[in-house]
Amino acid sequence: MNSEIKRLTSETNRELSDLGLWSGSLEKLEALSIPLAATIDQYARDWESNDNTRRELSARLSHARDMIRKTQAELERLTVKVGKVGEGDLAEVRARRDELWQLIRASAFDKTLTDEEAQKQSDSSAPLPDTFTEHLRRSDEIADLRFAHAKDVAIHDRLTKEIESARAEQQSTEQELADLESAESKLRKRWSSDWRGLGSEPLSPAEMREWMQSRQAILDRLERCRE
């Protein structure tokens, strides 16, 4: 009987020394407060859900970045062929042209601005009439190019919109990943808090299930020693 107790005690001590994450005594291991099995199961589900969400978001982000890269390359090749003749380019030049015209009108016709004030507000070192003439010429040029290369321009506009859409998707996904990172951080803090008596940082819920089984095997052997 004594030899059996010695054997069980020896095996218990050996298993205790092999038990990862634990450096305390057998008595403290027995008294250790651990989460309920149901609690660990819930953590495991949350862990798995976060992992699945991360994989999905990472795939979406990779797809958006790949889409931007490929579409941007295609757009750049097309731009070399037809120049900067997108809807945005034309709208920008026309808006600047209209702004300059309003300054000319205010100074030359309405007399609500002096020539010096109009020149200053134009934010241009060139004379206001010359700047206006250049933007008038450029807006007509872009409009003519868009008409002459109607098919390529349509592709250009489509690619531009696709890039804008992909960038919006990228930004949205990056924000979702940031939110997930925050949620995961809070989850890990709660998980660590539930294992604060361990004295070590706990592993994942699945791994801690195995740890608990090893702990229970030691405690079962200890109980047999006491019988």
Describe this structure in words.
There is one protein chain. Helices cover 82% and strands 0% of the residues. It is mainly alpha-helical and 227 residues long. It has one domain (2-226). Helix 3 (37-82) packs antiparallel against helix 8, helix 4 runs antiparallel to helix 5 and helix 4 (87-108) packs antiparallel against helix 6 (128-148). The chain is rod-shaped. The mean pLDDT is 89.
List keywords for this structure.
227 residues, 0% strand, mainly alpha, single chain
Record the SSE blueprint:
Layout: H1 2-18, H2 26-31, H3 37-82, H4 87-108, H5 115-121, H6 128-148, H7 150-194, H8 205-226
Task: Give the biggest sheet.
Answer: none
Average pLDDT number: 89
Gyration radius from CA atoms, angstroms: 36 Å
Strand content: under 5%
Low-confidence stretches: none
The helicity comes to: over 70%
User: If helices are DSSP runs of H or I spanning 4 or more residues, what is the number of helices?
Assistant: 8
Tally the structural domains.
1
Tally of strands: 0
How far is it from the N-terminal to the C-terminal residue, by CA? 11 Å
Broad shape: rod-shaped
Order of helices and strands: HHHHHHHH
Structural category is mainly alpha
